[in-house]
Amino acid sequence: MEYDEITSETADGITTITIDRPEVKNAFTERTLAELNDAIRTASDDDGVYALILTGAEDAFCAGADVRSMPDWKDGSKEDYAGFLWTAQNVVRQLRNAPMPTIAAVDGPAIGAGCDFALGCDLRVVSPDVLMRQGFVNVGLVPGDGGAWLLPKLIGESKAREYLLTGRDITADDVEELGLAVEIAEDTIEAAESLAEELLSNPAPAVRMTKDLIDPSLSFEDYCERAIEYQWACVNDDEHAEAISAFAERREPEFDRDYS
């Protein structure tokens, strides 16, 4: 797919996807969603990608849907609207299900579905002027892209209810207090790249399988069964062996990888 409303660049095992509509604070259109889904899927299918960064252009992450570009859904069918909403949900779905860790580098506003895109990532770094807002209730909508499912799991049900039911802003101070971000940084891309490089310094199979084990829907017994399979795969993995050797020899590991 040719990209008009996002950019996607891969170097040294890290894919950086940027929503590139700065004139509207990176608010998305149907085309943007299609491009995001394609770019995330492409990165996920690439064995040479070990981390993914999602960000927005020019001091904004994503201000939600660009309402000026949207049809009047009341004149359409429920099936058409469901298809549109599914494409937004699928951005979150793909970020959560991607085999590699995903990092949101959040500058400025992350509103509505834009907030959900950030929450759907495994990790977040934010700027001091970050403004995350669910805000759906303020315009007579529900959190259709995953927010009411994601936020309680990340910050607890009571506090999530406050933000979801009032539409209040989540500021940088709130993000720090709630533990929603790894770091508050002036340069979020630099911080995200540093975090991605830290992830790449660990054995990749262990990182990927650990991500898959972080699944609150699993019972403890199901978790243990899955952990046996994954741990056995790790025990027999070359990167595990190199990490052990490097630890014993007090040096940095050198993994034999083909980076995209």
Automatic annotation (TrEMBL):
<protein>
    <submittedName>
        <fullName>Enoyl-CoA hydratase/isomerase family protein</fullName>
    </submittedName>
</protein>
<comment type="similarity">
    <text>Belongs to the enoyl-CoA hydratase/isomerase family.</text>
</comment>
<dbReference type="InterPro" id="IPR001753">
    <property type="entry name" value="Enoyl-CoA_hydra/iso"/>
</dbReference>
<dbReference type="InterPro" id="IPR029045">
    <property type="entry name" value="ClpP/crotonase-like_dom_sf"/>
</dbReference>
<dbReference type="GO" id="GO:0003824">
    <property type="term" value="F:catalytic activity"/>
</dbReference>
<dbReference type="Pfam" id="PF00378">
    <property type="entry name" value="ECH_1"/>
</dbReference>
<keyword id="KW-0175">Coiled coil</keyword>
<dbReference type="GO" id="GO:0006635">
    <property type="term" value="P:fatty acid beta-oxidation"/>
</dbReference>
<feature type="coiled-coil region">
    <location>
        <begin position="175"/>
        <end position="202"/>
    </location>
</feature>
<dbReference type="InterPro" id="IPR018376">
    <property type="entry name" value="Enoyl-CoA_hyd/isom_CS"/>
</dbReference>
